[in-house]
Amino acid sequence: MSASQEKRKRMQQRAEGIETKKVKEQKTLAKRLKRKKIVNAAIIVICIAVVVLIVISSSLFYTGVPAVKFGNWKFTAAEFNYQYKTLYLSTYNSIYQTYGDYAYLLLDPNEPLSKQQYTEDQTWEEYFEETALERLKEMAMLTDAANAEGYVLSDEGKAEYESTVAEAKAAGVSYFGSFETYLTNMFSRYMTPEIFEDMVIKEVTAKYYGQTQLERLSYSEEEKNARYEQLHRENDLITYYSYYVEGKADEESGIDAETAKENALAIANVLTGAKTEDVFADMVYNYAPEDKKPQYEDKDSCRKENVTPSGLSSLYKEWLCSDDRTYGDTSLFEDDNGFYVLLWIERNNNAYSLRNFRDIVIAVGTDQETGEITEATKAAAKETVEGLYETWLENPTEDNFAKLADENSADTSQGANGGLKQNIRMGYLDGRLEDWLFDEARVPGDTETVYVGSKTSGSYHLLYYVGEGERYDWLIAENSLKEEWYNNWKAEREADYEMKTTFAYNFTK
To answer: Which of 12, 105, 209, 443 lies most in the core, judged by the most C-beta atoms within 10 Å?
Structure first.
């Protein structure tokens, strides 16, 4: 190779080396820039996440921005939660007062509401949410109408608002140490006294304005009679006799399921031939199993008196409520294990006056070991009742009776109202109380002591008859007419209160 060729080769190699170095430097720079962009992007993402976390952790989406809108009305998540939780608490308390420790079978406070069915097609959570939204919308409608009319809350309404807030404050201090802690525990972490009191006054104002509107409505006797006629099948009280003929297999006696069902059907068919109360009762006693005969010695043991249609089994409700029924009609209805035999007696069209009375309830204690009422515990309760009656006789007035009820009655479900129970209908009370209350000989001022109980629970009732209330069939009709008017009133305004939810609605419940 010549000297000139070697020189050119060395120059070319140096050029390539320089080029390679530059490329390496450019690649290195590119990598650094890329890493910087990634780092910057990561920093931005982290900053955004921190900001979002701070915002979410703050009260902004709970109290600062609307969660749901109805027309021009805006409610925050905290305000929705007030309505939602209030509805839940009132519903659970109502169920608990009726079913006691078995309330959890209907609504279990220890299980998610989304996992519990309210109806076949709706969970408790869906029900509470839907109802809470509807109540907020109604609050908006009624408040707007009240403001447009210049409505001023009545003294009674103001007293209800003040007592509601006062009771909540007292409960807060008693059970949680402070009102503020009570609110955050019962409603949500961002519920404040200001929000609570504002929602209570809105709720009370809407309620009393709505009542004022309904009280302005009046209907003639003809209108009420016509409306009740439309509703009578859902409201007439039914009196009937019922006996269940069991048709289950008895392996010990060698009777299989098919034979048992056939035997039960044969007896049921015989019983349908009984067309009067006495004959039905006698036949039931004759055909009842030997071990059950004692419970049918009383001829009224099969009698079901003044039963509301809503309390009837779907198996035979339609038959009992049919307009075609007449005294002495009988029929049988089959279920999986036997047959119901029914004897129709009469319907009560509710054309009677409701009753008002005062009640002092003295609970009877039970034996600590057996959990049952004893003669001793029953006697002690009776002595207490007799003592209260003697005290009342020293000043035998209704006011004095009311005072004694507030001081001594075990029934506090109505608050301190002197034991007053108003507009009581037939079929609502225990039969022993109802027999006394609806006796045609009853006059205001009558008193009586009645015992109601079983082996494990019981109470003495010291009763004071106040007088008649409204005629029940007319009350049913009037309530229906007013409900129809109110629904139409809401429907006319529906378009102005279209519901819209926002991102903040995700922070409700």
So the answer is: 209
The answer on 267 and 212 residing in a single domain is: no
- Give the strand pairing for 353-363 and 420-424: antiparallel
Mean pLDDT per 10-residue run, the chain (509 residues)? Answer: 52 51 51 54 46 48 92 96 96 91 94 96 97 98 97 96 96 95 92 96 98 97 98 96 94 86 96 97 96 93 94 96 97 96 98 97 92 94 97 98 96 82 92 94 97 92 97 98 98 97 93
Buried b / exposed e over 80-118, threshold 16 CB at 10 Å, is bbbbbbbbbeebbeebbeeeeeebeeebeeeeebeeeeb
**Rounded-to-integer distance, Cα 473 and Cα 475, Å:** 5
Calpha distance 244→254 (Å, rounded): 22
Alpha helices in 58-154 (DSSP H): 77-99, 124-149
Calculate ∠ Cα 345-349-351, nearest 5°. 130
DSSP-H helix ranges across 394-430: 398-408
Instruction: Give how many domains the chain has, as a whole number.
Output: 3
Residues 328 and 279 sit within 8 Å (Cβ to Cβ): no
Distance CA 473, CA 350 (A): 5
Per residue in 1-12, pLDDT (tens digit) is 555 555 555 555
Residue bearing tokens 């926002």: 502
Question: Which amino acid is it at 82?
Answer: Y
pLDDT score at 6: 54
Closest CA to 466 of 411, 420, 435: 420
Return the CATH number at 318.
3.10.50.40
Structural domain includes residue 335: yes
- Enumerate long-range contacts of 197-204, CB under 8 Å, 24 or more apart: 197/165, 199/79, 199/82, 199/83, 200/161, 200/164, 200/165, 201/161, 202/139, 202/143, 203/139, 204/153, 204/157, 204/160, 204/161, 204/164
Pair 190, 99 in one domain: yes
Nearest to 355 by CA among 472, 464, 440, 468: 468
pLDDT digit string (tens) for 202-253? Answer: 999 999 999 999 999 999 999 999 999 999 999 999 999 999 999 988 877 7
Determine, yes or no, domain membership for 333.
yes
Return the ∠ at Cα 412 (arms to 406 and 416), rounded to 5°.
40
Is residue 474 within 8 Å of 221, Cβ to Cβ? yes
User: Angle at CA 492, nearest 5°, toward 487 and 493?
Assistant: 100
Model confidence, pTM: 0.76
- Work out the end-to-end distance of the chain between its first and last CA atoms, rounded to an integer number of angstroms: 91
**Half-sphere exposure in the Cβ direction for 19 (13 Å, CA):** 6
